[in-house]
Design a protein that fits this description.
The radius of gyration is 20 Å and the shape is globular. The protein has 16 helices and eight strands. By secondary structure, the chain is α/β, with parallel strands linked by helices. It binds zinc ion (ZN). Zinc ion binds at residues 8, 10, 169, 199, 219, 280.
Length: 348
């Protein structure tokens, strides 16, 4: 039975270590020759990093093997795992299409090739045997030039059958110098009717209040309740949902203890700001969505009622979930149908 919605997952961080190890064994044994065995590789791949920068560096390892030819291989295994082990009914998968094109090509050739990547990802994500509703979020990148980022927005607008929104990724501290650019890009995206989210307020160096009005959801956003709780009222009024990814903050050194998230949840609940609990990089962390839920319960950060509120919020704020209800409500309707009018008359 599929139950959950995942709103924040990177294609690059979604490959679990065992799948990546097997891929390297078959196709690029030289890349893993320095590891004595699988457990050494898993330890290297999943261990916490000191900073967000070090952590993001690891993404390049996976990006380098996710090409137009290999993407279907990885996406098949991603959806299979998400359906079987995570009970996902809905998944928004995000990535920067430019970074999946060959580096030796020119910038304009790489831009031209992005549409093919989006189509390959879109087609590979439709699997009858693992029926998850999927859509893509195309990520602009804080270190890519304006022209590439604008082309990513144009591609999102032209690929609505596969793409449900845009994002900016690549480390939130790098967005500072080019804030006017980000505002104009998001403004442009909104003018095309695109849904928007963005990696902001993840670290203390990535807090940009001027960008918030352009976002429909906030990627992470944990520094808002932690450091700038006075902003929560506006966030609630704009009906912006925070995409909170608990394990990430420990892997990047942003938080020292998962219990620091209690203040995030408490302040958001008090202010009426909704939170979708997400994995960010379920593969890189080796932590799937149900375990994110369980961890929050185990550490008394939230209770079961609050967990359900967050699970409901994920469906409400999903950019491409086609139903008005979450699956459990749909299923309940099937199992406990309302009596028809004729039956009601007979019974009375
Ligand atoms: Zn992210």
């Amino acid at each position: 039975m599929t139950l959950y919605a995942e709103l924040h997952r990177h294609l690059g961080g979604s490959v679990v270590p065992r799948i990546l190890w097997r891929y390297f064994e078959r196709h690029s044994p030289e890349l893993i020759s320095r590891f004595a065995d699988y457990s050494g590789f898993e330890d290297f791949y999943t261990r916490p990093r000191n900073t967000l920068d070090e952590y993001l560096e690891l993404h390049t390892l996976v990006e380098s093997v996710q090409t137009v030819e290999t993407l279907p291989y990885f996406i098949y295994r991603l959806l299979r795992g998400a359906y079987i082990f995570e009970n996902l009914a809905y998944l928004e998968l995000r990535y920067t299409p430019y970074l999946r094109t060959p580096e030796h090509l020119s910038q304009s050739e790489r831009i031209d090739m992005m549409a093919e990547i989006v189509e390959v990802v879109g087609k590979a994500s439709k699997l009858p045997e693992y029926p998850i509703v999927t859509s893509q979020i195309l990520c602009m990148h804080s270190r890519l030039p304006f022209e590439v980022n604008k082309a990513i927005i144009d591609l999102a607008a032209q690929s609505r059958q596969y793409v449900c929104g845009i994002d900016v990724a690549g480390g939130d501290s790098y967005s500072a110098q080019r804030m006017d650019e980000w505002i104009s890009l998001y403004d442009y995206g909104r003018s095309l009717g695109l849904n928007t989210t963005g990696h902001v307020y993840e670290t203390t160096a990535g807090c940009y209040p001027q960008l918030l009005p352009y976002l429909m959801r906030i990627g992470h956003g944990i520094q808002i309740p932690l450091l700038y709780p006075e902003l929560l009222k506006d966030v609630a009024e704009r009906n912006q949902c925070l995409e909170v990814c608990p394990t990430t903050y420990l892997k990047t050194g942003t938080l020292q203890d998962i219990r620091q998230l209690k203040l995030v949840f408490d302040r958001c609940f008090d202010a009426g700001v909704e939170i979708a609990i997400c994995t960010d990089n379920a593969g890189l962390h080796n932590v799937r969505l149900p375990f994110e839920y369980e961890n929050l319960l185990t550490y008394d950060i939230i209770n079961f009622e609050q967990l359900q509120a967050c699970q409901d919020a994920a469906f409400r704020h999903a950019f491409a979930w086609p139903y008005r209800q979450r699956p459990v409500s749909l299923l309940n309707g099937l199992l406990n149908p309302q009596p028809t009018k004729a039956l009601t008359v007979m019974e009375s």
